[in-house]
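To: structure desk
From: M.T.
Subject: fold request, one chain
Message: Could you run this one when you get a chance? Sequence is below, nothing fancy, just the single chain.
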Amino acid sequence: MDGVDEVYHLAGLPGMWVPRKADFHTVNFGGTKVVIETARERGIKRFLHCSTESILFRAPTLVPVADDALLPDDMPGPYTRSKMLADRFAMQATASGYPVIIGCPTMPVGPYDHNMTPPTAMLRYFLSRRLQLHLDFVVNLVDVRDAAEGLILAMERGRPGQRYVLGGESMPLRRVLEIMAEISGRRVRCIHVNGRVAEMVTAMLEFISDHVTHRPPSGTAEGVRIAMRAGALSIEKAQRELGYAPGPVEPVLRETIARLLDGGHNQTEWDTTPSTRSRPFHVERRLGG
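Reply: Done. Structure tokens follow.
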């Protein structure tokens, strides 16, 4: 961090499954703690912590409370628990006088997701199946370029100690699957699955992955629990305070699905010209790349 004035902390372990569950805590909480403490020691002027929407969903049986009052046991699994603890540590740093701003992207999608993060993995999973068993929950997809712009705007204009939801469009998963079928030209059959049944099935899949195959399962119980809690989150605060203006999600879905169908061989760069973006903005230029 020598010679640095601002720190964007985006590093994390985003998947729903790892062989050692303690890695979620080590990376997502422990790593955030180390980076914030180091930035504070170095006198970094502003710090942006990238959190996640999934910690903001409340279980239906819990009495609604302020986001900052959420407890680790309220979270649906080890991933969200680790991200919530990191979020809380960032808030505590601000309370003690260090300027930390929090950005919460929803589900970012884009055609060059080489690490196959959960949103892209979900799209690839459904693309490969003509019979699509799914939970019909609300998803909020956002063009990853809009999410990146939102994080930069949060750094530039955000108020320390405030959390900004950086989303795009909220819609039922069934509608996402319909759009995917339209874009891909593939005929599929969608069947809604009961949440409790899905939770039991994915718990068994995780058990097999943990103790037999040691390979990621096709679904996790935590992922199902997040889906069962999911609802539309407002981006009004980010729009009002930051000037955040995400574009429609269908164009980036088309790009992402075309890339997945192509097997990742198309190396054409994204078109970020004003005619196809919500605003004439080039993330790579703002980041110096």
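Reply (cont.): The domain at 6-266 is CATH 3.40.50.720 (Rossmann fold). Let me know if you need anything else for the meeting.
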